[in-house]
Design brief:
The chain is mainly beta. The chain has a single domain, classed as Lipocalin. The protein is built from 1 helix and 8 strands. The strands form 2 sheets. The chain has a 5-stranded antiparallel sheet, with no helix packed on it. Strands 1-2-3 form a 3-stranded antiparallel sheet, with helices on one face. A hairpin with a 2-residue loop joins strand 4 and strand 5. The longest helix is centred in the N-terminal third of the chain and has 8 residues. The chain is globular and about 45 Å long.
Length: about 150
């Protein structure tokens, strides 16, 4: 079987921002000027600058895309472009092209819950933009919890 027909996750390749958010436990850290997503699976992380630096050039394509974020109240809004189109959106084979543009919204309701919403726009694959959303709740609240290292 050709490798391009095997789920990239089965080959320990990055999941992309949507699948990583739904598939793995994530630790979200905020530092001055950045939000960092540290995913338990496949040693993945995502660094989201919060300043107004320019996006990467269109010719640079990344597994997790190029993310730029800003806060609107308690909602972190992340604009993701420059997807390399090699990851899948789910384990049933959903895909997108390198033209994929994602706008994610992480709304923090309290210290234990958030709402996630992502709008995906890819005119070369989908007939119109579509949105996926879910509520997330903190699972590990015990003191001293450390993320599992999936090696």
């Amino acid at each position: 079987m050709k490798q391009e027909f095997i789920d990239p996750q089965a080959r320990c390749l990055p999941d992309g921002p949507i699948r990583a958010t739904f598939w793995h436990t994530v630790k979200i850290l905020q530092y001055p000027g950045y939000v960092i997503f540290n995913y338990e699976g496949n040693h993945r992380h995502r660094i989201v600058p919060l300043d107004s630096r320019p996006a990467l050039g269109e010719d640079i394509k990344l597994w997790m895309g190029d993310s730029r974020g800003h806060w609107e109240g308690n909602t972190l809004i992340i604009d993701v472009r420059n997807n390399n189109s090699k990851s899948r959106l789910s384990n049933v084979g959903d895909f997108a092209s390198e033209k994929l543009h994602i706008v994610e919204r992480y709304t923090f309701l309290d210290g234990k819950s958030m709402k996630y919403q992502a709008t995906l726009d890819d005119p070369s694959v989908y007939s119109r933009p579509w949105t996926i959303a879910s509520d997330f709740h903190r699972v590990h609240t015990e003191p001293g919890y450390e993320q599992w290292e999936e090696a």
